[in-house]
Amino acid sequence: MTSRDERSHLHPESQVVAAGRPAHTFDGDLNVPISLNSTFHATPPGELDAPVGYARYGNEAWSALEQAISDLEGGQTLLFPSGMSAITHVFGLLPHGSVITTSHNGYTGVQVYLAQAIEEGRLEVRFVDIANTDEVIAALPGSALLWIESPTNPGLDVADLPALIKAAKALGCGVGVDNTFATPLLQQPLALGADFSVHSVTKFIAGHSDLLLGSVSTSSPELWRRLSNARKFAGAIPGPFEAWLALRGMRTLAIRLERAQANAMELAIRLQNHPAVERVRYPGLPTDPSHARASQFMKGYGAILSIDVKGGAEAADRACNASRLVTHATSLGGVETLWERRHRWSWESPSIPKNLVRIAVGIENIEDLWADIDQALRASQ
Ligand SMILES: *Cc1c(COP(=O)(O)O)cnc(C)c1O
Question: Can you tell me whether residue 181 is helix, strand or coil?
């Protein structure tokens, strides 16, 4: 099965396994090979429709992963060497001085990038509470791009994607969604009308904390063409080995996410009643402010949760340093459970509490996770 049409009826759990394979040939490869070439033999005149020619323009391993992400997200996908590179290539499409409306917290890399763009006069940014739909819509007139991360990192706020996308499109404002936390298995922004759906492929899609990659999917052939040219000629390109590894990781995305999400739900429920925890943020909890909204258009609540630890920043640090199975480290989306106090990074937004610990839940046994998190939290008090 090789054509996208043939795969389109499949469930996502099958698509992650079937997509991005070479065409069937007798005794041919089951997986795309890793092509370690900077240059390729010229094609005969008149056969210029599928050439790579030079490795800054394309690569079999990129194409396979791009195809696989496109199957899940819709539209056409381009790979970038990191999630940040994917995001800044989208911002790079905007004319000098454009207005972006976006959340006042969210992935710190984006916050730092935008702060510098504002300082240099390249972009104007309207910062809003992305969960407050009225506030976001009021900021839209005159904006060139609405940039939505949802659920947000690390606050776990959920934006009303269908309402915001509709309002922005009615005003002619472009919409980009950072879909990293949800993965394409839980929400599909392009199907809701967004122009771009972006991933830090580094996280859930690749899933093993061993590479950096990013992707942009768009339903617009014109935007795809502009992004593709920007990638070719700005010259920061992904490596073929990273793309190959990420596609290998993606084969198990559905099963990893299912397990990690079940673990996250169970941990969220138990942590709610933990004496060392002031607050749990997880859209899957019926008491969470994001629960009703997330239930309307997400197919699940993801594998990340955050807790506010009793006793402030010092207690939160003590907890993170006391775990044994759970690794004290940044990042998320891998098979292993990680946690960290977000304000150990000086650039975390002031709107995120100093004692907030983000837990990126992995696929370990739930009782082992609970025993470790419980003892670490108790030791922190
Ligand atoms: C990690 C992350 C990014 C940045 O991705 P990199 O691959 O590290 O460049 C962007 N958005 C979100 C939500 C992230 O978690």
Answer: coil
The single residue of 56, 122, 279, 354 carrying the catalytic annotation is: 56
Matching residue, tokens 């776990």: 156
Q: State yes or no: is 56 an active-site residue.
A: yes
Q: What is the pLDDT of residues 122-176, one digit of tens each?
A: 999 999 999 999 999 999 999 999 999 999 999 999 999 999 999 999 999 999 9
107 is catalytic: yes
Domain match, 191 and 271 both: no
Rounded to two decimals, the pTM is 0.97
230 shares a domain with 115: yes
**Please, what is the angle between helix 60-73 and helix 240-250, to 10°?**
40
| Sign of the Cα pseudo-torsion (182, 236, 117, 95, in order) | negative
> Which residues surround ligand 1 with Cβ inside 6 Å?
82-84, 107, 109, 149, 153, 178, 180-181, 200, 202-203, 212, 214
Identify whether residues 64 and 176 lie together within a single domain.
yes
